[in-house]
Amino acid sequence: MTEKQDWQHLYILLKLAEMGAYNRTAKISTEYLAKKLRISQQTASRYLIELEQKNFIHRKVTPGGGLIQIEEKGSKGLQKLYSNLKILMEKTYPPSVTLEGTVFTGFGEGAYYISKDPYRKQIREKLGFEPYPGTLNIKLSSDYDIKTRKDLEAYPALEIMGFQNENRSFGLVKCYPAIISGQIKGALVTALRSHYDASVLEIVAPVCLRKRLSLKDGNKVKVEISTQH
């Protein structure tokens, strides 16, 4: 079953619920359903057969039309959709944002900081991976990306706590889980002390992103950043 079919089935369930088939039995003919959905009667009939086969609905065919009631499995699907929409609509920030920019060679600070054991240990514990000793530096492409990056500062972040050794103190680092180029899980890291402003992303990952994604300076990269942890 494809993702497209799943959404089609949810949409049909929603329409059946609107026609009275949620928590009760409703008489709904394929002709009436087809008119409501602006599809052919044959397609409407096929959708109902598929929903019945998946145990989303119970249907009894009568001369006056099908007696249809949404089953528990179908109700759970609608409830999940409702919950997801409720979260999206009520949150003051999105569950994720996607930023785009170009790769550039940085100052080498990333490798220095990521090599510190207290940071590495916390990244393993909180992000679930052993970080490659270095960061991928990305210069954001547009005013929209830079503004969105600034907005991230108001969203919840995973915090990598600072520490002190015999030579100096190391500050707090904020992290946001991310997916780089739609392929590799990593994280955006933001140090309170940094030479970079909001126009730059510093990305850590369990692999060398330049090698794994065959990236060179000037290549464009998209990063999907999650605000849900």
Write structural notes for this entry:
With 229 residues, the protein is α+β, with helices and mostly antiparallel strands. It has 2 domains: 3-90, Orthogonal Bundle (Arc Repressor Mutant, subunit A); 96-226, Elongation Factor Tu (Ef-tu), domain 3 (Beta Barrel), CATH 2.40.30.30. The chain contains 8 helices and 12 strands. The strands form 3 sheets. It has a 6-stranded antiparallel barrel. A 3-stranded antiparallel sheet has the order 1-3-2. The longest helix is centred in the N-terminal third of the chain and has 19 residues, at 3-21. The protein is elongated. The two termini are 29 Å apart.
Count the E strands. 12
In the sheet with the most strands, the strands line up as: 4-5-11-10-9-12
- Highest CATH level, the class of the largest domain: Mainly Beta
Secondary-structure-based class equals: alpha+beta
CATH topology name of the largest domain: Elongation Factor Tu (Ef-tu), domain 3
Number of helices: 8
Total individual domains: 2
Question: What is the first-to-last residue Cα distance?
Answer: 29 Å
Strand and helix order? HEHHEEHEHHEHEEEEEEHE
CATH superfamily label of the largest domain: Riboflavin kinase-like
Q: Please state the average pLDDT score.
A: 88
Largest sheet: 6 strands, antiparallel, barrel
Strand content: 25-35%
Pick out the low-confidence regions. none
- Give the overall shape, derived from the CA principal axes: elongated
Helical amount among residues, as a percent range?
A: 25-40%
Q: Specify the CATH architecture of the largest domain.
A: Beta Barrel
- Provide the gyration radius in Å: 25 Å
